[in-house]
Design a protein that fits this description.
244 residues, alpha+beta, NAT9-like, transferase, Aminopeptidase, ten-stranded mixed sheet, acyltransferase, N-acetyltransferase domain-containing protein
Length: 244
């Protein structure tokens, strides 16, 4: 999506920045790990394909992506000045990158595994499900609350910017934005990934059904009652300009 191309999210636990071309080399190295490929249901790609993917994700109307970086340190982390800018390739240099967080939008009726996540709506309403997935690349960064912070932050960002997100989706699909609604959230997680399942359960997601053919469990939560406006509570959430 283009909605976040000049926006970063700074908090005490993590810094989220838009996924740009200068992140691709590091991202490509992460995705060579067979364990990460398995966890994210991804196929190996060439570096050229990764660059093409990055460009596609940036312009896609149904995919919102951030790179997860370490939080600002020192005096910068305590600044209250909203004019503070996040500088590309400085605040998000390769040594500060930790993973990524994604949000996919699709029609609720395309959810083949069931639709308990969504409340019934009038037939004229175009109902959307938002799928969330998070990946923390290096094992030394896991289990420290970074993944949880990333999920909390993207949900808080979506809550604050939902009209613009739905407008971009509607324009891409040539739909009437007034009829488009986000009605539920979902995450698909490998059954053996107990840490990720526990993370989403802590945030209010509930498992729906049993593991599918691919060994994934689906965890769901309704949008209207998810409380994501409070998801960033205590994290010193700030949306700051991201400059290239």
């Amino acid at each position: 999506m283009k909605v976040n191309q000049t926006i970063s999210i700074s908090t005490s636990k993590a810094l989220l920045v838009p996924y740009e071309a200068h992140h691709v080399l590091t991202y490509h190295e992460w995705m060579k790990d067979p364990a990460i490929q398995e966890a994210t249901a991804s196929e190996p790609m060439t570096l050229e394909e990764e660059y093409e993917n990055q460009e596609s994700w940036r312009t896609s109307h149904d995919k919102l992506t951030f790179i997860v970086c370490e939080p600002l340190s020192g005096a910068a982390s305590n600044e209250n000045d909203e004019a503070r800018q996040i500088k590309a390739q400085v605040d998000d240099s390769p040594d500060k990158m930790k993973g990524d967080i994604n949000f996919f939008l699709y029609l609720a009726d395309e959810d083949d595994d069931g639709d308990e996540v969504a409340e019934p709506r009038e037939s004229s309403t175009i109902r959307l499900i938002g799928e969330v997935d998070v990946m923390i690349a290096n094992t030394q960064h896991r289990g420290k609350g970074v993944g949880e912070a990333a999920v909390r932050l993207i949900l808080a960002y979506i809550r604050r910017n939902l009209p613009e997100i739905l407008k971009e989706y509607a324009q891409g699909e040539k739909l009437d934005v007034e009829k488009v609604q986000l009605v539920g959230l979902m995450a698909k997680i490998k059954q053996e990934n107990t840490g990720s399942r526990a993370l989403f359960k802590k945030l209010g997601f509930k498992q729906e059904g049993e593991a599918n053919y691919f060994g994934e469990v689906k965890m769901v939560m309704g949008w209207e009652t998810n409380g994501s406006e409070d998801m960033a509570e205590g994290l010193e959430y700030r949306e700051l300009d991201y400059v290239m």
